[in-house]
Write a structure and sequence with these properties.
Length: about 675
């Protein structure tokens, strides 16, 4: 216990455990009144203590000034040691790095887009160099004043060297913060194409020194080889390339589509085999139902998912396309204004990535097909050929019975996980309740699997009725008939075919995937969200964190004192004053000034919040690195993409020091530095 009014400087140790003190019981005990009292300080004693403190502060201030003066003198001496040629060369490099950073920040490619055979203008980099020279950059002017007019100032190799140094410096700034926080999670994005090769975007989640959860983009990893080689390359990148320890990785999530999803699932299993604490979880940026559907390696399911992605991209091309869809909705729901209004609002933005995408697509299917047919006909010639071609392709897929029945089966099968997945992307309290409801979700899915005949009969009937309204024939896929070439007498009925090849595999696949990404360790970790005070209050402070806390016990600074500390943490919030509001998120809890007096709780929350399944709590107010990556990819044609410039553009918010880059460049490429001119000998002429 520390008395706030005490004149002594009392500081708690980091390992101190807060305790509830009884300050009134001694008044009831007559024997305690005869104990030795603490000496009361007189005004003279207090004055002497203050004088000693003042003298000590003045001495520390003088010492600090002496140190700063010494450092400034050392810096000045170092500056003096540079020759005029070296100083000029460093100024020249600073100007080059400023140009490179401007190109990266503004997403300007190094080269211009000029077809072969035509007269080429100077590259963007060359043009900016000339502009700065004309604007009065003395370092650049002295460097290139003797260069021919039509000659590139810097070769492609030199430009690559500058880009490498810039990229490495920015990445190192982020990695320094990750190393300070120690624990992190690894997140990968969907494949990206650079120069005809596929690459895997790599992100890291960590809690910085201000106790704020961040997800930063680090690099692109070449996506080549089998699963084992990819695991090894990913591990090498994190350890050797970034200087981190995979033993400190506490979570991993992989946003993947198509056949790529199956490969990344094997990569996750391989990493967990080596590092069990790197728990595989879904990513908070992807709706759970979409993640589950993407993980199903069945052709009919992947066709549905690819079509939904194509539809999402299609309607973002022009507002006229969205208007055409709303017009088609009004036509199909003329007698039901409320339903039409509801569908228009639902499909106004990003509806193809929401939790209820399958339900919404079934409701919109007729309107979507009409919309695509109208765009394809293009009677008013207001759509370009590329749009009409895309509309034709989408319409052909929508009018296939295999697509319809697969969509209906996905809608019904994933209805059992929809509310669960929505809670996972909610507040901390929603995630806590979701973790405790998983058993019921799995029970429902297993009940469906046990009674698959009955469920499939209802689902298939729904698909047949929908196809009938769209005048689409019910039939077995043509590809299946061609591959098996069954005689007419042995022809398989459509209902039987879709049960065996779609319904049963889909339900089994969903159950297996939910089991994999929500293991017992994952659930234990998520149930520890009860450490958040608002969740404690919601549960009437009747929580049992110590039963689940063993999942991160080895990460705690003082695991032996954890039970006592958890008790004090609970008492602190249970007996708070009425005007004190309970923090409702991990971020709010970590921002409390006194959370440092609970070192185990503080550490536990920092590790827990790095799990990729939890939402970035400030993602609604600030732009995330994932959004910046998507913006870069959508705004930059493939032939103009550059990995280094992409890293600079996505991380343009990261602070950078040009002097550090100059020093790094001089160390890596010493052959580019100018050699000091030899002193000229003075000859004496005797007359």
């Amino acid at each position: 216990m520390v008395c706030k009014t005490s004149p002594y400087r009392t500081v708690l140790k980091d390992t101190a455990i807060p305790t509830i003190f009884d300050l009134t019981s001694h008044l009831k005990n007559p024997h305690s009144r005869h104990r030795k009292r603490i000496k009361e300080l007189t005004e003279e004693d207090i004055r002497r203590i203050k004088e000693r403190r003042l003298a000590s502060s003045i001495e520390q201030l003088h010492s600090k000034k002496d140190i700063e003066a010494t450092e400034g003198q050392d810096a000045a001496e170092e500056e003096i040691k540079l020759s005029p040629e070296e100083k000029e060369f460093r100024d020249y490099l600073r100007s080059l790095f400023e140009i490179v950073f401007m190109l990266g920040k503004q997403n300007i490619p190094l080269k211009t887009n000029v077809p072969e055979g035509l007269e080429r203008d100077p590259s963007n980099f060359q043009a900016l160099l000339e502009y700065r020279i004309n604007a009065g950059d003395k370092a650049l002017r002295r460097r290139f004043e003797a260069t021919a007019v039509n000659v590139e100032y810097l070769s492609t190799a030199q430009q690559s060297q500058l880009l490498d140094v810039c990229e490495g410096t920015v990445r190192e700034e982020i990695l320094m913060e990750v190393r300070e926080s120690r624990f992190f999670s690894l997140v990968t994005g969907d494949l990206v194409e650079f120069a005809g090769e596929r690459h895997l975007p790599l992100f890291l989640r960590f809690v910085d020194q201000s106790n704020t959860l961040r997800e930063e983009f680090l690099d692109f990893l070449p996506f080549e080889g089998d699963e084992a080689s990819l695991v090894e390359r990913l591990e090498t990148q994190v350890t050797d390339g970034w200087g981190l320890r995979m033993e400190d990785c506490r979570g991993q999530a992989h946003v993947a589509t198509g056949t790529f999803a199956t490969k990344m699932k094997a990569v996750a299993v391989g990493l967990m085999g080596k590092y069990p604490m790197a728990m595989h979880t879904p990513c908070s940026t992807c709706a759970l139902n979409i993640h589950l559907a993407n993980s199903l390696p069945f052709p009919s399911v992947q066709v549905v998912m690819a079509t939904l992605r194509k539809i999402g991209i299609f309607f973002k091309q022009s507002p006229f396309l969205q208007a055409e869809l709303e017009k088609a909705i009004s036509v199909y729901h003329q007698g039901n204004y409320e339903k039409a209004t509801e569908l228009k609002e639902a499909c106004s933005s990003n509806w193809t990535v929401q939790h209820n995408v399958f339900e919404l697509t079934v409701d919109l299917l007729e309107s979507l097909l009409l919309c695509m047919d109208c765009i394809r006909d293009n009677e008013n010639v207001k759509f370009p050929d590329a749009m009409t071609g895309d509309a034709y392709s989408i319409a052909e897929t929508l009018a296939d019975f295999e697509f319809i029945v697969t969509l209906v089966i996905l809608k019904n099968a994933l209805s059992f996980t929809r509310a669960f997945g929505k809670n996972l992307q909610g507040e901390a309290l929603d995630v806590f309740f979701a973790a405790n409801s998983l058993t019921a979700v799995l029970h429902s899915l297993n009940e469906v699997f046990d009674n698959i005949e009955v469920y499939h009969e209802f689902w298939f009937e729904e698909a047949v009725n929908l196809a009938a309204t769209m005048e689409i024939p019910v039939k077995v896929p043509r590809l299946f008939l061609r591959k098996h070439r069954l005689p007419d007498t042995d022809e398989i009925p459509p209902e039987t075919y879709f049960k065996e090849y779609v319904t049963v595999p889909v339900i089994r696949g969903i159950i297996d995937e939910v089991d994999d990404i929500f293991s017992q360790s994952n659930l234990k970790a998520l149930k520890c969200l009860s450490l958040v005070p608002a969740i404690m209050g919601q549960m009437k402070f009747n929580t049992s964190e110590e039963n689940h806390a063993d999942v991160y016990r080895k990460d705690l600074p003082n695991p032996d004192t954890l039970p006592a500390e958890l008790h004090c943490w609970k008492i602190k919030w249970k007996h708070r004053s009425k005007e004190v509001r309970l923090p409702s998120t991990i971020h709010e809890t970590l921002q409390l000034s006194d959370v440092k007096f609970f070192p185990n709780v503080n550490c536990f929350l920092k590790v827990l919040t790095t799990l990729p399944v939890l939402m970035l709590e400030d993602s609604g107010s600030s732009e995330t690195s994932r959004k910046r990556l998507q913006t870069y990819l959508s705004d930059t044609p493939i032939k103009h993409r550059c990995k280094s410039l992409a890293v600079l553009h996505i991380n343009s918010h990261v602070k950078h020091d040009l002097d550090v880059m100059v020093d790094k460049y001089c160390r890596l490429y010493p052959e580019d530095e100018p050699e000091p001119e030899p002193e000229s000998e003075i000859s004496t002429v005797v007359m």
